[in-house]
Write a structure and sequence with these properties.
Elements: E1 2-7, H1 11-22, E2 27-33, H2 36-46, E3 50-53, H3 62-72, E4 77-82, H4 88-95, E5 99-102, H5 107-118, E6 123-124, H6 126-146, H7 149-159, H8 164-171, H9 175-189, H10 194-203
Parallel strand pairs: 1-2, 1-3, 3-4, 4-5, 5-6
Length: 213
């Protein structure tokens, strides 16, 4: 059984979704929430497989709730179900949703999406996919412009697993200079250490990592 929580601030929508889901033999609805905090509470209580998450909800919005749930329960899949096609799409994707679909989709498409994310797939509705690609590309360019050429070189070497001493030798600079550059990189990327910087760089396409064979 696929265990599901429904989170939406409109009671009629919650009830309608629950009735649709309960018609499926392989889906069980664990509970409903009218706001983001309620979704967090239900997630902590039931550890659901999937959460259908509205974005604009009172008390705690869907974006914040998604961040909290994915941090505490990374294996829970979250499907953003909304009427919006604006910049919030990108924020939900960055928060960790497995799918982003619009509320006017057919019931069968919703069921298919739930089953697809359970298989590990990611799905963004075609009407908003182009916006996601455009926004992420713009963000990547913005972060790239913050880094100097030297900082990009050092970040590239960090991703490849080089130590500060090795980076200093490869770039013919002192270890102190490497540390100073890393401090600037961490600040610009809003990360705490070299591991987070490397993960961020790879995730956002700031560097290309080619594993040696």
């Amino acid at each position: 059984m696929i265990r599901v929580v429904v989170a939406d601030d409109h009671a009629l929508i919650r009830e309608g979704l629950t009735k649709l889901l309960e018609l499926e033999d392989d889906i069980e609805v664990l509970g409903e929430a009218g706001d983001g905090q309620g979704a967090i509470n239900l997630a902590r209580r039931y550890q659901p497989d999937v959460i259908l998450m509205d974005i604009n909800m009172p008390v705690t919005d869907g974006i914040t709730a998604t961040r909290v749930i994915k941090r505490e329960m990374p294996h829970t899949r979250i499907i953003a179900l909304t009427v919006y096609e604006d910049e919030q799409v990108v924020e939900m994707v960055k928060a960790g949703v497995s799918a982003y679909i619009l509320k006017d989709v057919a019931a069968q498409e919703l069921m298919t999406t739930i089953r697809r994310v359970m298989e590990g797939n990611v799905f963004i509705h075609p009407r908003v996919a182009s916006r996601v690609v455009k926004e992420l590309a713009t963000e990547r360019r913005r972060y790239e412009s913050r880094l100097t050429r030297r900082e990009k070189d050092i970040l590239d070497l960090v991703v490849k697993g080089n130590s500060n001493k090795e980076i200093a030798g490869l770039l013919y600079i002192s270890e102190k200079t490497v540390k100073n550059h890393l401090t600037n990189i961490f600040r610009k990327l809003s990360v705490k250490d070299r591991t987070q910087a490397a993960v961020y760089a790879l995730k956002n396409g700031l560097v290309k990592y080619e594993q040696n064979s």
